[in-house]
Write a structure and sequence with these properties.
mainly alpha; 77% helix; transmembrane; membrane; ABC transporter permease; transmembrane helix
Length: 253
């Protein structure tokens, strides 16, 4: 008596389980990582409260008629954006400064995917913190300032939220490009808070084409046109591309 073996082809209709973590999972991990450190928590709190605190001080110390809330909302939102730059820098350059980048690339051995995940994560954090800070600032203005116009407030809030996301991504891109936290922070703040104001005084036409802070203020106060949008988008694209290129060329040691 003989046994007959029947060979069957493997089924192709069965779902294949992915071994790599999904992008939403990685984004969630990056968000928790950014907000789990003491520096990340401190920056998140500072970014949330700086604008409202400045609004309280300005409202209490000035008797001038504001006219519209768009100016204060834009200025206070810009302060938040400046702090969110640091959060973005820490998310990328901090990995190299603290020697945790090796572990990150061992878990996810695709540098482009890691950078994309970090960009999405800091953009979400930046937008959320900017929205919360702006809501608190609006509450301060509604409580402490009488007779102010709220026309255009919706656009100002939208601009501030988008700027919060953009500034955080800019910080992440520059941090990835330089791979050095002090260097990235010093360079960015020197350019934004030192070079750009000097350029605005000496060559205002050129500053209008380069300064993202002016672009945020113009958009927040209702200026129409694409130039401010192009300026902010240019900073995001250039910093992100620089971070991507230099990260792929850098050896992990």
């Amino acid at each position: 008596m003989t046994d007959v073996l029947t060979l069957t082809s493997p089924r192709s209709d069965l779902p294949v389980r992915r071994t790599a973590p999904s992008l939403p999972l990685l984004v969630g991990l990056e968000i928790r990582k950014s907000l789990s450190t003491r520096s990340g928590k401190a920056l998140a709190v500072a970014a949330t409260l700086l604008g409202p605190a400045a609004a309280v001080i300005a409202s209490a110390s000035s008797d001038e008629d504001l006219g519209s809330v768009t100016g204060p909302l834009s200025v206070m939102g810009l302060l938040t954006g400046y702090l969110l730059i640091s959060l973005g820098v820490l998310s990328t350059a901090g990995e190299w400064s603290h020697r945790t980048v090796q572990t990150t690339y061992l878990l996810v051995p695709h540098r482009g995917r890691v950078l994309a995940t970090k960009a999405v994560a800091v953009a979400l954090i930046g937008a959320a913190l900017a929205a919360l800070s702006t809501a608190l600032t609006a509450g301060v203005l509604a409580t402490m300032v009488d007779g102010v116009s709220w026309d255009g407030a919706g656009q100002a809030v939208g601009v501030v939220v988008a700027a919060g996301a953009a500034f955080a991504v800019i910080g992440a891109g520059v941090g990835a490009a330089l791979a050095n936290t002090p260097g990235a922070l010093t360079g960015l703040y020197l350019v934004l808070l030192g070079v750009m104001p000097v350029l605005s005084n000496s060559k205002p036409e050129l500053a209008e084409d380069l300064d993202p802070a002016n672009a945020v203020l113009h958009l927040g106060m209702g200026e129409q046109g694409t130039q401010p949008i192009v300026v902010i988008a240019g900073w995001v694209v250039v910093s992100t591309v620089a971070g991507w290129v230099l990260t792929h060329r850098r050896a992990v040691s």
